[in-house]
Amino acid sequence: MKSIYALLAPVYDRLNEEIDYESWADYTGEVFSTYAKREIKIVLDLGCGTGSMTLPLARRGFDMIGLDLSPEMLTVARTRAEEDHQNDILWTMQSMTEFELMNPVDAVVCTLDGINHLTSKQDLEACFACVNRYLAPGGVFVFDVNSRRKFEEIYGDEVYALETEGAFCVWQNTYRPSTHLCRFYITLFSERANGSYGRSDAVQSERYYPLATLEKALSGNGMKLLAAFGGQDCHAICPQDERWYIVAGKAE
Is-above-0.85 flag for pTM? Predict the structure, then answer.
C-alpha cells in the first residue's frame, strides 16, 4: 500500500481546486500585519505539500521556506515554483515534528489542517517546540485546524467520492469520539498514459484537538494564543464552524 502522499501528489491540486489559496494568502498577510510585532520577511510554510500556500505568499513578496516530509509532494511543489518563476524558494524535506533551520524565521504558517495530521499529543508538542525554537521574537505562528463539528458531522462515518480530470477518489471515514481520531480509507483511480486507470489504496488519519488542548500545548512550548477565529473573516468561533484559524506568538 502506497503512502498517502505518494498516492495523492500527482492529483492533489486537482482534488483541491475549489480552495481559494489567493484569498487565504490575503488573510494570512492581514494576520501578519495585525499581530506580528516585527516586520515579516522570512516565512516557513510547515507541511507545505505541493506549495499551494507557499507560492501565493512568495508572490506577495515574502521569502519562503517550504517544508514537507514527502518527496513526491516536494517534487510537484518545485515544478510549480519553476513554472511560476519563483526560483528563490528554499524547499526542505523534513518532518514537522523534528525539523532544523539555519536561522530563525519571522513567521510560520501551517494550512489546510496540517496540525490535525499530528495524531498524538507527543507529536503536537514536538511540532510546537520546533516552531518556538525557530520563530523570532515578535513573529507569529498562523495555522488552522478542523473543528469538532467537522469531525463529528462531516467526516463522521461517511463515504465520499470526488472526481476530477484523470482521477476518481473515494474515501471512507471512521471517527471515534472517545479518541478524537478519524481514519480515512482512500482509494484512488488515476488515468495512465494509455488511457486505462490504475487503482491505489492508502490510509490517513487526523485527530481533533479542542481549543483548550491547543492553547495548553502552545503555552507549554513557549508560545501564547493570540487569537482564534471561526473563519477568514475573523468572526468569533461558533458551533457551526468547520475550521478554526489560530494565531500564536512567543510568550513574553
Answer: yes
DSSP helix/strand/coil, 190: strand
**Residues 182, 156: Cα–Cα separation, whole Å:** 8
Write down the pLDDT at residue 167. Answer: 85
Cell numbers at 117, concatenated: 495530521
Q: 116: which DSSP letter? A: G
What CATH number has the domain bearing residue 44? 3.40.50.150
Q: How many domains does the chain have?
A: 2
**Of 222, 5, 246, residue with least CA distance to 115:** 246
In tens, the pLDDT along 162-210 reads: 888 888 989 899 999 999 999 999 998 988 889 999 898 989 999 999 9
Please report, for residues 69, 70, 220, 246, 249, the alpha-carbon distance to residue 125 in angstroms, rounded to integers and kept in the order given. Answer: 18, 21, 8, 16, 15
